[in-house]
Task: structure prediction
Amino acid sequence: MIVFLPLVLGGRTEITTWIGEVGRTIIFVLVCSLFLSLTAIPLAMGRFMPDATLPRAGAVEWLSDRYQRLLAWTLAHRPATLGIAFLVVASAVFPFMKVDKSAFSGSKVERVNIQFEFTDNVNYREAERYVSRMEEWILARKDSLHVKSTYSYFGNNEAITRAYLAPGWADDEGAQKVRKLLRASMPALPGVRYELGGDDGVGSVAGVGPRVRRGRSAPRGLAEEVRRRLTHVDGVTDVRVGGDKGRQEVEVVVGRERTTDYGLTTASVAGRWRCSSAAVRCRASVAPRARSR
Result:
């Protein structure tokens, strides 16, 4: 039964909330099983077993004699027995206090993720500038933030910075404290909003997810109202709206007949468009029909 106690007594996260219910159920079942094995089963055995005395082995006889002496001593020295039981429990509690009771303690929490949510479309060069400013700010305060290093990934309209925790802070409790420090003091950059998460991303921290479904034009306004109200609730942070993930796009329709006349394929046109739109240097090429001309 004590094996399942970490599931109930562990840190409060989304996963421990689910697993904690399983742990409580298992502990309850084991307690019921212990009660039945000490009460109902001996009564049933006494009713259905024959009254005849069966010979017992020598080892069983020896153990029975020692057990009777132990019970007699216990009844004769009840205060001492209570003190011994207390010492046994205390000796088990002290090692248990040294055990990491955080969720999934086998997989060490190593970092805090900072995800950038841009209010406008930005290319990878602009995203890099945002990331660089955030990294410089963190590394300048890494001792007070309990961070040893950073790693960032960025692209068009997306960026994420990972702050790796210093030794002694690489656990659930340390990550929560570091997120609190970052949330309270991160620099306010124009055109970007931050979302903080754990090892598994922003969704790894506990939260609630209300859904708004009403018509086609109303959900956006309702979602913004939900965001505004939730931000004023104590203890609620990083309010996200699903519509924030939308991006502007340009649709290019390729004329197949003209493409065929020039000896091009859809893949070659798509590749050329990618080079021009993403500002990436590509090898110069000439269409086959145009080359013959």
